[in-house]
Design brief:
disordered C terminus, Alpha-Beta Plaits, single chain, 4-stranded antiparallel β-sheet
Length: 381
Amino acid sequence: MTSNATGEQTPYDDAAIRFDGVGKRFGDAWVLRDVDLQVERGTIVGLIGPSGSGKTTTVRLANGYYRADEGDVRLLGADPSVMSTAARKAIGYLPQHPVLFDELSLWENLNFHASLNGVAFTRRKRLAELLELVQLDGQEKKLVSESSGGMQRRLALAATLVHDPPVLMLDEPTAGIDPILRRRFWEHFRALRDAGTTLVISTQYVTEAAHCDVVAMLANGRAAAVGTPEELRRQAYGGVELDIRFDQHVDDAVVERLRAISGVRRAAVRNGREVRVAVDSDVIAAASVAEQLGTEFAVAGTAEVATDWDDVFIEIVGADASEDVVDDGGRAGDTTGGEAESVDDEQHDAEQHDAEPGDVHDDVDMSAEVVDVERVEGVVS
């Protein structure tokens, strides 16, 4: 048994992905350390943090591209670093630098990825639906070499979804995408979640935390916090934030009265007639706080404060982000280079080729290597 992000006891077999004390280093530098994470089946887990925080490394450990240097990783109950090619079809992986073929059209690229992942030849409708989802319908004959970076990113997402895998690992899928299409992607991600798909999504957009079931906030190679969006908001603010407006000027008596109410974790004057409070909704409903003041204080109105996820992230990881990752010798490791997303990927991968089998997988769908188009002519012709 182990605990999930909400503290419930669940069997290991129920988890789609599990990290127990996982760490990864390149040379003497630890880029990830002491990560515990359990991803339940049919949930969206967001990996949120700045560049170099460990997001890409976490995703690559989860899909077996990297092998952990400490701790244990399990994907669908197995060690992902030694999974067979057939077993890997259960994964849809969108790397930051996906494989696309410049000399092929958008349709031919998508068709090739479908063939690579064993999608039936009667797949034309499926491919058309995915191109429509990523708003590339009508552009099917356009070559990748003639397409913008944003179009290529959208095509790569469609290729990741093409075989409808039960586990999706998407490394910054909304990077460079306009807000309207980003919203559409998240609607589709939630629909996949509702159908039972497990999604691990990394992002630098902290506002996307609100779309996730569970969020892991990463800083300097460590998980600074893991929980539901509501749990993280409560951890940062002490509860739901509420602005209470008064008819009269606010004095210390009002603030002290609010602080004395059970469930009010914090109260501070914002201006002469308004006080912002943090309310533990498990103790008292936010709407009831003003009523607890009685008739002595004239309340003009209340408004729940929209969550500022930038502030939540800063509140939670502010102190943690200043700490270095510590190596086995108890010394602070150099994390200035960050993870694979902010350090030379080729150097990292070259180091791994000299390591044990399984440390890095060079499958076509797991790297950004250039592939000779002539090798796939039979698939796309």
